[in-house]
Amino acid sequence: MLVFCDFLQLGTMGNADGNESDIIFILLGFSDYPDLQIPLFLVFLVIYMITVVGNLVMIVIIRINPKLHTPMYLFLSHLSFLDFCYSTIVTPKLLHILVVEDKTISFAPCITQYSFAVICVVTEAFLLAMMAYDRFVAICNPLLYIVIMSQKHCTLMLTAVYTWGIISSSIFIYSLLIRSFSGINIINNFLCEYSAIVSVSTSDNHVMETIFFILANFNAFSTLTIVLTSYLFIFVTILKMHSASGRYKAFSTCASHLTGVTIFFGVLFFLYCVPSSKNSWLLVRVNTVFYTIVIPMLNPLIYSLRNKDVKETIRNLMSLSIRWCSG
């Protein structure tokens, strides 16, 4: 927190056009579709409620069911935690600007929203990579699984991905805080996102933009490399299995994670491959909605619908709730 306060002070010094308190961002959101404001509010509210309940229930299920006390579900509980945090960082502000005329957000809250969002995104990307590695070890090196994916090693990996998420966020924030902004800045989106903030900056810093480009690509391609390499070895191992039932069982253990990874990275790359033109802003906003709001809702469904232990625990919880309410 002290580091973040120092960053904000540095950002205030770097903004030559005014003090931090004078800098205002206007989040346009979907204001160019006034008739859709209330329907969108209701849709996003329902999605957010499902996201919160789904991810919190997933965390509770993993905690209370001893059968799910495995490395894969340890990672999944952290994935649910990150999805809950990410959705909570983004969605309430979106709901707010959909129903009120004041769509402004000051400098400090905007940077705070962006910083926590980056931590969640970067950490989730590397967490998905760790989950792919876990499946690789489970299928390709089952005899060494307990040793390689020990509790100590899992804790170290989780510590590493959270730490790197914080470091990446700090670098991205610094690159924004040394920029200058005018008093009022219009952001054609519903959240404080890097490219949108940079587009309204009055300064030009090629060095920091280059650093951002390198770091963002490093995060994307390193995680994607781990995922693709892990699944390449997994598919080769599965194809070498002589038993059809063995191949099906091995593939079914990866199906949920592979679905989640495909959606996450597919939307991520599509979002950042869209050219920054006026005609593409609607497409950018739609993809941002899917990336920041829909995916956190989908993940608990993806990982629970195909798992017998998860579904059994949900049924037990529901039957307990019914008996408690009726008794």
Brief synopsis:
This protein has 327 residues and is mainly alpha-helical. It is built from eleven helices and three strands, in the order αβααβαααβααααα. Helix 1 packs parallel to helix 6.
Strand order of the largest sheet: 2-1-3
> For the residues shown, what is the average pLDDT?
82
Oligomer: single chain
**CATH homologous superfamily classification:** Rhodopsin 7-helix transmembrane proteins
Query: Which ranges are low-confidence, i.e. pLDDT below 50, for 5 or more consecutive residues?
Result: 1-14
SSE order: HEHHEHHHEHHHHH
**Number of β-strand runs:** 3
| Overall 3D form | globular
Measured between the Cα atoms of the first and last residue, the distance is 48 Å
Separate helix tally: 11
Helix proportion: over 70%
Overall number of domains? 1
Going by helix content, strand content and strand pairing, the class is mainly alpha
Keywords, please?
single chain, 327 residues, mainly alpha, Rhopdopsin 7-helix transmembrane proteins, three-stranded mixed sheet, 11 helices, 3 strands, 76% helix, disordered N terminus
Architecture overview:
The protein has a single domain (2-326), classed as Rhopdopsin 7-helix transmembrane proteins (Up-down Bundle). Helix 1 (2-14) packs parallel to helix 6 (151-177) and helix 4 (107-140) runs antiparallel to helix 6. The chain has 11 helices and 3 strands. The termini are far apart. With 327 residues, the protein is mainly α.
